[in-house]
Amino acid sequence: MKGRVAVLKAYGGEFELREYPVPEVEAGAILVRLSRAGVCGSDLHIWRGEMKEIYGASPQDLTFGHEMCGRVDKLGAGVTTDSMGQPLREGDRVTYLYFFPCGRCPVCLHDEMGSCPRKARPNRVAGTPPYFNNAYGEYYYLRPGHFVFKIPDEISDDIATPTNCALSQVLYGLRRAGLRAGHAVVIQGAGGLGINAVAVARDMGADKIIVIDRLPERLELARAFGADHTLSATELPTADRRVEAVKELTGGFGADVVADLVGYPEVIPEGLRMLRGAAATSRWAASRPATSSATTPPPSSAATRGSWPPPTTPRGPSSSRSLSFGATSRDFPSSGSSPTCFPSSASPKASSRRTGCSARARRTRRSRARPSRCEPQRPWNWGRRFSAKALTPSW
Ligand SMILES: [Zn+2]
Ligand SMILES: [Zn+2]
Q1: If you average pLDDT over residues 68-95, what whole number do you get?
Q2: Which fold has domain 167-286?
Q3: Could you tell me whether strands 184-188 and 208-213 are parallel, antiparallel, or unpaired per DSSP bridges?
Q4: N or C: which end of the chain has fewer CB within 10 A?
Q5: If you measure from the C-alpha of residue 217 to the centroid of ligand 2, how many angstroms do you get, rounded to a whole number?
Q6: How many Å apart are CA 362 and CA 12, to the nearest integer?
Q7: Residue 162 alpha carbon to ligand 1 centre in Å
Q8: What is the distance in A from the centroid of ligand 1 to the CA of 98?
Q9: What Rg, from alpha-carbon coordinates, does the chain have?
Q10: pLDDT in tens, 313-362
Q11: How many angstroms does the Cα of residue 312 sit away from the middle of ligand 2?
Q12: How far apart are CA 19 and CA 1, in angstroms?
């Protein structure tokens, strides 16, 4: 039996579909037949060639994608339950972590598995056994030592797909940042992470949620997910004016938590200025920076906690909490949709459709120094109510 994998040959180009043999399942492993995959912001960075320091000057038969869900196709010997102890059978819908912490080092023992320096990630070069190592394919080979979670019936595939990344990241970050009931929180950036953060902050009891972005449709989406106030970075074009607006909305005191979910280092000092003066109770949650230059931590004059250094991946328990959140929260306005999903059945058309993105991206690069915000419009199916433009923070 064979299955297909989407392979990227050139940055900004189209995917090529290749067939590989579906592997035998070793003891302790699970073969998953994928039903959905998500397009994360980092996937777009990879596709655009903005992470060449990791993936090389040109992609070497690159396979990627990490947000996904599917059905158990085959259970390896000894796997009888998911990580929460629920019975697991072939045909069950599952989601899982896409990295594999060692579970033995001091970092893991401190319950910081997302930062485990020895954690393994599947190989990204196409043709490397067991072949199905990433989300953009028909199968995923979940190696032994995994964390896997059965998806409750009430959670759709669209909602379940990004729970292992976007939703887990913001759950983890806001918890680590110490967000509590009654707090005022500023969310910088209303992309996929920012929108999830709005819903999570609402669910955690935040009293005032202020969202900043440049694009009006994203701010509208943020309001639909529970934002109390939205600030347009276009109408407030300077950091001074945005800081002033946040202070005004918080009675002159500033926010208890600021979450940088933009991914560009220039917003960090601005966010610090938005924090309440009492540094001891102020918290900072940072998203993964989009550029390698963004490795400088916030100044020590402010209390910094939570996600700095940014976790490359959330810890295991966050994924199970994400599923619980997805099942119980009323803060997702559309129960059937998620900001970052497309069905795996769309992938066979990947190499036969032009996205129109490359030419637009080149034009944009000539006119602006900033990386292009161009998104591939097809073959992704973005869900019923979310436009592609609403996915990536726009600063
Ligand atoms: Zn992701
Ligand atoms: Zn470890």
Answers
A1: 97
A2: Rossmann fold (3.40.50)
A3: parallel
A4: N
A5: 41
A6: 10
A7: 7
A8: 10
A9: 20
A10: 344 555 666 666 655 554 444 333 344 444 444 433 333 333 233 333 33
A11: 13
A12: 10
* Measured distance CA(375)–CA(361) in Å, rounded: 9
53, burial (CB in 10 Å: exposed 0-12, middle 13-18, buried 19+) = exposed
pLDDT of 395 higher than 60? no
Q: Is the dihedral of CA 279, 280, 282, 283 positive or negative?
A: positive
Q: What is the pLDDT of residues 129-147, one digit of tens each?
A: 999 999 999 999 999 989 9
- Among the bound ligands, name the one nearest to the CA of residue 109: 2
CA distances from 106 to 109, 304, 305, 313 (A): 5, 22, 19, 17
First CA to last CA distance, the chain:
46
Number of other residues whose CB lies within 10 A of the CB of residue 74: 17
pLDDT in tens, 195-247: 999 999 999 999 999 999 999 999 999 999 999 999 999 999 999 999 999 99
Cα atoms found within 13 Å of the Cα of residue 233, Cβ hemisphere only? 20
Q: Which ligand is nearest to the CA of 111?
A: 2
- Name the segment(s) of the chain with CATH classification 3.40.50.720: 167-286
DSSP summary character for residue 280: G
Task: Tell me which amino acid residue 333 is.
Answer: P
Q: Which fold has domain 2-165+314-342?
A: Quinone Oxidoreductase; Chain A, domain 1 (3.90.180)
